[in-house]
Amino acid sequence: MATPSSRPPVFVTLSALDAGHLSLPEHMFVSDAEPGKKTLVPSLSFLIRHASPDGSITNLVFDLGVKRDLNYTPAQQKDLDIWQPLITDTDCAQSLRNGVADAGAASNGVLLDPTKDIDYIIISHAHWDHTGTPSDFPTATFAVGSGTLDLFKNGAGPAYPSDLFEDDELPALRTVEFPPVSRIGVYGNEPYAPKHTPLPSNTQAKPPAAAASWSWKPFGDLANTLDFFGDGSLYVVDTPGHIYAHVNLLARLGERRWAYLAADCCHDRRLVSGEKEIGLYDDGHGGLRSIHTDTAEARRSLDRVIAFVKNQGAEGNEVELILAHDPVWRKENAHACWPGKV
Length: 342
Hints:
Blueprint: E1 12-17, E2 21-25, E3 38-42, E4 45-51, E5 57-62, H1 74-79, H2 92-98, E6 120-123, H3 128-131, E7 141-144, H4 148-154, E8 175-177, E9 217-219, E10 222-227, E11 234-238, E12 247-254, E13 257-261, H5 269-273, E14 281-282, E15 288-289, H6 295-314, E16 318-322, H7 327-332
Parallel strand pairs: 5-6, 6-7, 7-8, 13-16
Antiparallel strand pairs: 1-4, 2-3, 4-5, 9-10, 10-11, 11-12, 12-13, 14-15
């Protein structure tokens, strides 16, 4: 997998962070579900550490998981019963400070201070179990998919009324949106689809220097990727279908070793293996829906990710695919949790 430069490759380190747990009703996520089955799953966050040529370390967090105090909007509170039992201990900030207990973290001392040590936070999408507690990070610059701030403020059509969101969920003056993505077809072009929010003149956001030339480019089977640091170490991947502005990350861990953070491209590893298909359930209006805004678009995004992993493997590159809500991966990878590494 070539990087778009003749410079020596740059690698990052990746650590998983516990950021709460929720319970997923199986029928909402996979086909041929076991009736009544619920599975307690993690809502994983990730710490990505990027070394600059001068030796300084940039700390980036991908997703913040579940809010520590479950202080959601009234409309969101109504739906929380669906996801019970919910566990908020340990949350993202606590994992950063103290490490993840079964990863061999020290019992005393602060590993990373969320109030001053985190430079960037990328939120994969606007759903409640990924936005966490942004106020825990008063100095970080947030980066989100195009349209996210509008989505928080105004919602997006009948599936996403504005009361499902907090209009000030993220600190607007410290948030930068990735460039818009041009699409062919209906998805993202609906009259109610959220609009891009440019940086205001009084912004306090401090995006990386590479932001001046951010643009979407194909990368293997992935249609639209953006080089976050400009050195081929971390790519933002546009992954439409689940909800507007949904993004993934592709992190370069070694010469031929990568990790793909798939967020909510799917919620069950059996969709990756082909054992199951996306689940459909009653939409409350006499029809069927899935957990995705656009089921067909979400399926295409997942298919691209699966093809990318497979084809890179055929070229001798290892790409580890990690879902945000995979209890099996979490159980098998305690060693990869902070302060450990993937």
